[in-house]
Amino acid sequence: MPSLPCVTLAAMDPSLEQARQAFMDGVEQFERQQFEAAAALFEQALRLAPGRPSVLMNLGASCVQLGRFEQADACLQQALAADDSQTDAWVAWGVTQMALGQWAQALQSHERARALGADGADFCLRWGQCLAHAGRLSEAVQAFDQALTHAPNLAEAWSQRAHAQRDMGQMDQAIAGYQRALALGADPELHRYYLAAISPDQPLVNAPVAYVQRLFDQYADDFESHLVDQLGYQGHSVLLQHLPVDPAARFEWVWDLGCGTGLCGSLIRPRADHLVGVDLSSAMVAKSRSLGVYDSLHAQELVDFLKQATEKADLVLAADVFIYVGQLEAVFEALSPRVRTGAWLAFTVEEADPGLEVQLHSSLRYAHALTYLQKLATRHGWQWAKVHHAPLRLDQAQPLMGAYVYLQKT
Q1: 179 located within any domain
Q2: Same domain for 353 and 290?
């Protein structure tokens, strides 16, 4: 997090000397990066001199440094309502809104700060990220270029620039950007993953666990509204509709792998004696817990959960999960000993291009060949019972076809 400069409290009435002194002491603590102490002093000054824009701004900036973004949001809104010419307040509010996932508002704050003269590598990097979230990719690249003008060796700017170029279809430039970021010390596992998605000569790698966890932690609040309402996602409902068992059949133990916000769990609950949800994202698990449909929930990596499970499952669901896993050998190896004979495994995949077993698309999602899945099933004692082809969701306003696969344990 960049250090956010403080502003100076205007001259006060002598009767407010205590507030002035608390403010000045807070500024000193902020400059020493003692943000907890600074926040306490700014809060003291605010109690003695309510509504002062400079105090509110500095308290907001301290809360940003402490990760208290809800409090920062309230302080900075008040500061800017009183004085909207504070460049540093707009900068701090933009940082706050990014942290809260309020990307449209974050872009507005950055653009206002820019109009007031804000600049620098870190500012331009964040500004570019906001532009990219708004789909203004060419402008985002320009903002990242400005960041690199200030700091040519800023690895994150090279990486973010490459993301935008990838999304614009400029694959050669994106490859060069990811390689430059790697050379400057960017996360090697993550950037090998990015490169594998757009560079045919790169070896296939599985998605980094930390990347998937962070992605869905950030996505949790808007997951259902975006995936179901905007993209028309139906994988969870179609998967259960075509399960090749008697509709009245019940299952003693059901595992909902990659349970997300509980879309599958809500549908299968009436037929499950014990329903267990597993997801890498703790934010997704929290959303599922609020539904009250699961008997137990685990914020855990998929294979780790399977290796540690003690009960044996009768039905295992994995809707829209394997597209974030990649190679599935470890999943099948861990799963097969932990289900009962006759148990069902039902999952969705996107299908790989002819000649490829597992394919990583530039979307950073994996696709799988049915022949690859059949080999895994045979190797690990599953009977190939059924495959159903139907759309999973919309992609670029067009139906994205998927395979709904049903295996039974022999």
Answers
A1: yes
A2: yes
CATH number of the structural domain spanning residue 132 = 1.25.40.10
Q: Are residues 228 and 199 in the same domain?
A: no
Q: What is the pTM of this model?
A: 0.88
Instruction: Write out the residue range of the structural domain in which residue 182 sits.
Output: 119-203
State how far the Cα of 374 lies from the Cα of 352, in Å rounded to an integer.
14
Choose one of 45, 71, 100: the last residue of a domain. Answer: 100
Residue with the two structure tokens 């170029």: 165
Do residue 333 and residue 357 come from a single domain? Answer: yes
Minimal CA–CA distance to 358: which of 394, 316, 330? Answer: 330
The vertex-101 CA angle with 96 and 104, nearest 5°, equals 90
Question: How far apart are alpha carbons 37 and 30 in whole angstroms?
Answer: 8
Q: Which residues contact 153 (CB under 8 A, 6 or more apart)?
A: 184
123/65 same-domain check = no
SS3 helix, strand, coil % of the chain, rounded to 5?
55, 15, 30
Asked if 292 and 383 sit in the same domain, the reply is yes
* Structural domains counted in the chain: 3
User: What is the pLDDT tens value at each position of the chain, 410 positions in all?
Assistant: 445 555 555 554 665 789 999 999 999 999 999 999 999 999 999 999 899 999 999 999 999 999 999 999 999 999 999 999 999 999 999 999 999 989 999 999 999 999 999 999 999 999 999 999 999 999 999 999 999 999 999 999 999 999 999 999 999 999 999 999 999 999 999 999 999 999 988 899 999 999 999 999 988 888 888 888 888 999 999 999 999 999 999 999 999 999 999 999 999 999 999 999 999 999 999 999 999 999 999 999 999 999 999 999 999 999 999 999 999 999 999 999 999 999 999 999 999 999 999 999 999 999 999 999 999 999 999 999 999 999 999 888 899 999 999 999 99
